[in-house]
Design brief:
By secondary structure, the chain is of the alpha/beta class. The chain contains 9 helices and 14 strands.
Length: 320
């Protein structure tokens, strides 16, 4: 299965079969015995991280989603890229990452297979050294059979990469001083659309914490709450671009963030972020950053307080 293949094209059904096989062969799959593990509020930082901050870039990729997490370590930064935006951002994202000094992506996460989240992920796989790829497994009739999705499968096959299934309590390796916890989707999830299959991941670095939610909507949020995960986080990346279908009152209360980030495009046709979501963030006095107003947003932490820099360059899309 890991033999390199060239000039190989998968149809929708064949592509899904290969993906399932790759998932099942993955040595990193953690078959949970049920029940949420005890949550953590802090992780001791190693001496090797001294002087270098955690960096979390909320990249402005228009009406899409992409986050770059850079965790300092003894041999440099551990780079995790969650989502990439649409295909038109392939060249711009490549240039942006290389401009930040990223040559290797240690963990590449596809939160779910919608093109506004993974449209150019195949190009990223082709152009960078990739440590591991992570993605939720959707039922066959829920999996979008887009060209972008098939190209991602082919790109992984061509480089001999195994795609690791993301589900509750799945393991994502991280450097000392940090921990990722995957809270969703459940392995037995059965949703109507792909959004609620989004991977929901909490990062703890020192005493600072971030929650990344993809496009998870209220139904998924309810299951996470039922499962009893520790959700309290300093920063919440709001689900589904600030849609009213996400960030329910109960979920927001459990996360209790100091800051929220919404990824969306100026004047987008969906009306994101919805006024209901913006209103509840305002009522709770949560400091909110938006890529449509603030461009690319950088959050940095030395393991305690988090500082934000806004107005950084957006990722350039293809002209026309």
């Amino acid at each position: 299965m890991n033999k390199k293949r060239t000039k190989y094209s998968l149809g929708p059904v064949a592509g899904l079969v290969v993906l399932i096989v790759l998932f099942l062969l993955s040595s990193r799959i953690n078959l949970s015995d049920g029940g949420a593990p005890e949550g953590i509020n802090s992780v001791p930082l190693p001496d090797s991280s001294a002087g270098q901050p955690l960096q979390v870039y909320f990249l402005d990729v228009g009406q899409g989603d992409s986050e770059l997490i850079r965790i300092p370590g003894e041999t440099g930064y551990f780079n995790m890229l969650i989502d990439t935006g649409e295909y038109e951002y392939a060249d711009g994202l490549t240039e942006y990452l290389k401009g930040l000094g990223v040559e290797r992506i240690d963990a590449l996460v596809c939160s779910h297979p919608h093109t506004d989240h993974m449209g150019c992920m195949a190009r990223i796989v082709q152009r960078f050294d990739i440590g591991a790829i992570y993605m939720p497994l959707l039922p066959e009739d829920r999996t979008p059979t887009t060209a972008a999705y098939e190209k991602l499968l082919n790109a992984a096959l061509d480089k001999g990469l195994t795609i690791n299934q993301l589900h509750e309590d799945a393991i994502i390796e991280s450097p000392p001083g940090s921990q990722f916890q995957v809270m969703s989707p459940r392995m037995d999830a059965d949703w109507d659309g792909a959004n609620n299959y989004s991977a929901v991941i909490r990062l703890v670095y020192g005493e600072s914490s971030f929650l990344f939610t993809g496009d998870a909507e209220e139904e998924s949020e309810e299951i996470i709450l039922e499962d009893g995960y520790m959700l309290s986080s300093d920063v919440l990346k709001c689900g589904h671009h600030g849609s009213s279908s996400s960030t329910s009152d109960e979920f927001l209360e459990a996360v209790d963030p100091l800051y929220a980030v919404i990824s969306c495009e100026t004047g987008n046709r969906y009306g994101h972020p919805h006024r209901e979501t913006v209103g509840k963030l305002d009522r709770e006095k949560i400091i909110t950053y938006r890529t449509d107003k603030d461009g690319t947003i950088l959050a940095e932490s030395m393991g305690d307080r988090i500082t934000f820099t806004t107005g950084l360059d957006s990722v350039h899309g293809r002209d026309g």
